[in-house]
């Protein structure tokens, strides 16, 4: 009888066993749900961090791009700011981000001053966990830094450079054509011979109806008669990077015999010159 009582205590009724099984299942499902929740939260945190860093990269590159388009394009010349200088231009600095601006880049196979004007690239990145060991620089940029799981964006100013070169050149052409039209009108209205050079006065001390003698390259805005003849404003002859169209009618650069001409040029940010010659 005693042995039977022990068995009775160990062997629980069927109903109790069912409840225990349900309890074990609930505990297992609860634990599984907790593990799933932890995994999902971890993944969400990782995605959120990536999104945050991407936002920082975009904001930083946006500021540097704006600085380059407004100031750097015209002022850098051949100098290249270091990372510390670039950080100094930012309104908000993110210590974990890296940034660099390239050395001047001339497109391979380019022809002519306009096409060969150097441009820049700006790189902003969040370093990879294991960056490549080879420290190869491409146009001054540490491209080895953006492999693996690095986050990065690159701004290429090539299109901006070409657009601004084209705009500046068209401004110079417009100024030249305006002066040509003026000189032609002067010749038609004059009772004098068509051989009169209205692009350079024959008497430098008194220009009369012609343009004065401009024996050295001078900003067009400094020659009142040239500005009046063209009918253009200061902005009309100022390139997007701040350089002003220059003119000269000296014998070394312009023709003082038929067909008469006026030489024009426009300095690019790199120090080269776009040139044009307008006739009468």
Describe the fold and architecture.
The chain is an alpha+beta fold. The protein has 2 domains: 47-156, no CATH class; 163-279, no CATH class. 42% of the residues lie in helices and 12% in strands. Strand 6 (261-267) and strand 7 form a beta hairpin. Residues 1-12 and 19-44 have low confidence and may be disordered.
Which H/E pattern describes the elements?
Answer: HHHEHEEHEHEEE
> What percent of the residues sit in helical stretches (DSSP H or I)?
40-55%
So what's the overall shape?
elongated
Secondary-structure-derived class: alpha+beta
Essential attributes:
three-stranded antiparallel beta sheet, single chain, 7 strands, four-stranded antiparallel beta sheet, 6 helices, alpha+beta, 280 residues, 12% strand
């Amino acid at each position: 009888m005693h042995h039977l009582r022990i068995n009775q205590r160990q062997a629980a009724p069927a109903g109790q066993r069912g409840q225990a099984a349900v309890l074990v299942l609930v505990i297992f499902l609860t634990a599984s749900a907790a593990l799933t929740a932890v995994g999902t939260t971890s993944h969400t945190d990782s995605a959120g961090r990536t999104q945050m860093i991407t936002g920082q990269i975009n904001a930083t590159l946006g500021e540097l791009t704006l600085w380059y388009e407004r100031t750097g394009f015209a002022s850098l010349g051949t100098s290249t700011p270091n990372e510390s200088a670039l950080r100094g231009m930012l309104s908000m600095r993110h210590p974990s981000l890296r940034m660099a601006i390239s050395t001047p880049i001339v497109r391979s196979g380019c022809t002519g001053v306009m096409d060969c004007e150097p441009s820049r690239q700006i790189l902003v990145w969040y370093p990879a966990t294991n960056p490549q060991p080879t420290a190869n620089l491409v146009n001054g940029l540490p491209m080895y830094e953006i492999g693996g799981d690095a986050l990065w964006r690159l701004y290429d100013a090539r299109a901006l450079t070409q657009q601004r070169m084209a705009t500046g050149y068209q401004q110079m052409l417009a100024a030249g054509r305006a002066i040509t039209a003026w000189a032609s009108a002067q010749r038609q209205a004059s009772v004098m011979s068509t051989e009169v050079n209205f692009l350079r006065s024959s008497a430098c001390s008194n220009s009369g109806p012609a343009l004065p003698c401009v024996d050295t390259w001078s900003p067009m805005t400094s020659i009142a008669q040239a500005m009046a003849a063209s009918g253009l404003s200061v902005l009309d002859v100022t390139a997007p990077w701040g350089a002003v169209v220059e003119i000269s009618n000296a014998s070394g650069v312009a023709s003082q015999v038929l067909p008469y001409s006026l030489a024009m040029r426009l300095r690019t940010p790199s120090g080269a010159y776009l040139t044009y010659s307008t006739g009468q």
